[in-house]
Write a structure and sequence with these properties.
about 350 residues; alpha/beta; TIM Barrel; 3-stranded antiparallel sheet; 13 helices; 13 strands; about 40% helix; globular
Length: about 350
């Protein structure tokens, strides 16, 4: 009831304003001893939902997608919201204000959000300061991007800079080359560019004598030929995993009047799930996938897993579903596993094998 009332107030405001109010309220919660209260009401625990991926023990398979916690400041709070992992960022080497406002749009009747934020973030130096003050609890992913002013031929330097500075705080890295809101960024998704970027980052790992999983986040608008070329490059590159998918620029007829920018939520669901299924089938499940895009109810989450996702993430569904949404998803999946008398590993990609 409280969230329904609170959300009505927030949804009456301009979307970015409501996001800022929510963020400030969550930051304030850091200063109060409410962690046990949060865990009691918001968390769901089951051994069936634990999973080891990349030698990382995830307490459950549901994460908060990159882009929600753009500064990393909300990691301690969201760690108590029932998530199995949190992805912070996207971070760029230099602080960035992002694109001009308005740049965030909510379409409640369609359970959709359009954003053209443009990697607004405090920069990697500030991110390091924030992470140094935090106690590590659940796995943390760090999402890296390039600055808007960095030309594509120098983009690799931005990713390396972020990697070098923030690796002590990351359980895994996401290389974001698929946001539609930074000019020409998606050109870095070509199989050739991705291979070069992966090779450079792997060499940097060897130089630093570390081993942290590196994931690539792809967009849902790739042409089929290029999509499979990228998957082929993944098969030989030693990439640890990838995320399907980022937001879409495509608009079906019923969404053609939406603002320009990356569309997320329900309109993205089927496209995202289809690409997960194709990727899992093509790579024979050998490279872990994080599935994200249009998870608006617990069954959507189950579909993403059965399509081939080892882990899943939510963003727009969390905005519309509220703080109890993660618990509902986890409870639903756990009940399914118990009813079917099977393990999580048994259902990952089961629909892609048909």
């Amino acid at each position: 009831m409280f969230y329904e009332l609170f959300s009505k107030i927030l949804f009456a405001l301009e979307p970015e304003t409501s996001h800022q109010i929510t963020t400030k309220a969550l930051k304030v919660m850091n200063f109060f001893p409410v962690q046990e209260f949060e865990k009691f009401f918001l968390c769901y625990t089951s051994k069936r939902l634990k999973l080891n991926v990349w030698n990382i023990e995830f307490p459950n398979i549901l994460g908060l997608a990159g882009g929600f916690d753009k500064t990393g400041e909300l990691y301690p709070v969201f760690s108590n919201f029932g998530f199995g992992f949190i992805e912070c960022g996207t971070f760029t080497p230099q602080p960035q204000e992002g694109n001009p406002k308005p740049r965030l749009f909510r379409y409640e009747e369609h359970f959709a959000i359009v954003n053209r934020m443009g990697f607004n973030n405090p920069g990697i130096e500030k991110a390091k300061e924030i992470f140094l003050l935090q106690k590590k609890t659940i796995p943390r992913g760090i999402n890296l991007g390039k600055n808007k002013i960095t030309p594509n031929h120098k983009a690799k330097e931005d990713y390396i800079e972020g990697f070098q500075l923030l690796y002590p705080f990351a359980d895994y890295f996401v290389i974001n080359v698929s946001s539609p809101n930074t000019p020409d960024l998606r050109k870095l998704q070509s199989s050739k560019e991705i291979l070069e970027l992966i090779n450079i980052l792997q060499k940097k790992q060897k130089d630093l004598n570390i081993s942290i999983p590196i994931l690539i986040k792809l967009d849902p608008d790739l042409e089929e030929k290029e999509f499979y070329l990228i998957l082929e490059s993944f098969a030989t590159s030693g990439i640890d995993g990838f995320i399907l998918t980022n937001t879409t620029l495509q608009r079906e007829e019923m969404y053609k009047n939406f603002e320009m920018g990356g569309l997320s939520g329900l309109p993205l669901k089927n496209r995202s799930t289809m690409l997960i299924k194709k990727a899992y089938r093509f790579l024979e499940g050998k490279i872990p996938i994080i599935g994200v895009g249009g998870i608006m109810n617990p069954n959507d989450a189950l579909e993403k897993i059965m399509a081939g996702s080892s882990l899943i993430q939510i963003y727009t569904g969390f905005v519309f579903g509220g703080p109890l949404f993660p618990k509902k998803i986890l409870q639903y999946i756990d009940n399914f596993l118990e009813k079917e008398n099977c393990k999580l590993q048994d259902i990952i990609g089961i629909d892609a094998k048909i």
